[in-house]
Design a protein that fits this description.
By secondary structure, the protein is α/β, with parallel strands linked by helices. The chain has one domain: Phosphatidylinositol (PI) phosphodiesterase (TIM Barrel, Alpha-Beta Barrel). 33% of the residues lie in helices and 17% in strands. The chain has helices spanning 22-31, 71-75, 95-101, 121-132, 146-155, 171-179, 194-202, 215-224, 234-244, and strands spanning 6-10, 35-42, 48-50, 107-112, 139-143, 160-163, 184-185, 206-210, 228-231. Strands 1, 2, 3, 4, 5, 6, 7, 8 and 9 form a nine-stranded mixed β-sheet that branches. It is globular, with a radius of gyration of 18 Å.
Length: 248
């Protein structure tokens, strides 16, 4: 029986700091999470920025598409005031800054947001950043686009990759990911059941569910044998894991 469930801080600790920013990552590290998840986009000048949305509208004082901005333009935006006045003047981090802010042994869940354009430019930049930070052994690269993941696997087969589900496809997700050679799943919470977890493990795969933010749901997923939980409240999950003796 699996007795450890990973505490995966979704976008850092967004309950205590602006999501996908260095203070959010630092807050998650203070809790002692096992893994930090963050999102990566490529900017117009090729730089890699950490933000969930394809636009800056929700999480900065600016507007517009990330893909049409340069890093210099992005750096001029305030990425903290929307959350609380104490974070005024905060900047959107680069992928390199995120990797530097999340040191070993904390694991990395690197969610690539845009689909590659087929040129390999995005994939090459991501891999260069991971390799430059010597982060490969602790990285899980996550994406919804199979062609992009295949290009990444061709370039860096030693890394771990996760193909996201195409929708609420349940057990078909296990079969599809296994057929494509992926060993890690990131199912949506609607897919979850004890039977789903058993099927994942029977296929010799692992699964990190997205997501759980209340204690009852966390307990249920843990009892079913889930390998990891993405959460927006990593402090609560840490407490639940201790309570259930599943914190390693």
């Amino acid at each position: 029986m699996r007795t450890v469930t990973l505490n995966i801080a979704h976008r850092g600790d967004p309950s205590n700091a602006p999501e996908n920013t260095l203070p959010a990552f630092e807050a998650a590290l203070r809790i002692g999470v096992d893994m930090v998840e963050f999102d990566v986009h490529q900017l117009a000048d090729g730089a890699l920025a950490v933000m969930h949305d394809a636009t800056v509208d929700r999480c900065t004082d600016g507007s517009g598409s990330l893909g049409e901005m340069t890093l210099a333009e992005l750096r001029r935006l305030d990425a903290g005031s929307w959350f609380a006045p104490a974070f005024a003047g905060l900047r959107v981090p680069t992928m390199q800054e995120a990797l530097d802010a999340i040191p070993p042994p904390t694991l990395l869940n690197i969610h690539l947001k845009p689909a590659g354009d087929g040129s390999g430019r995005f994939e090459a930049a991501v891999l260069e950043c991971i390799e430059g930070a010597a982060a490969g052994p602790r990285a899980l690269v996550v994406h919804h686009d199979l062609p992009t993941l295949n290009r990444l696997r061709e370039r860096a087969p030693e890394l771990r990759y996760c193909l996201l589900p195409a929708g609420p496809d349940g057990f078909e997700y296990i079969r599809r990911a296994a057929g494509e050679g992926f060993g890690v799943l990131q199912p949506g919470r609607a897919m979850m059941s004890a039977e789903f977890c058993r099927a994942v493990h029977d296929a010799e795969m692992t699964a990190n569910v997205f997501y759980a933010d209340d204690a009852d749901t966390m307990r249920r997923f843990i009892e079913w044998g889930i390998d990891g939980i993405l959460t927006n409240d990593p402090r609560l999950l840490a407490d639940v894991l201790v309570e259930m003796g599943r914190d390693g």
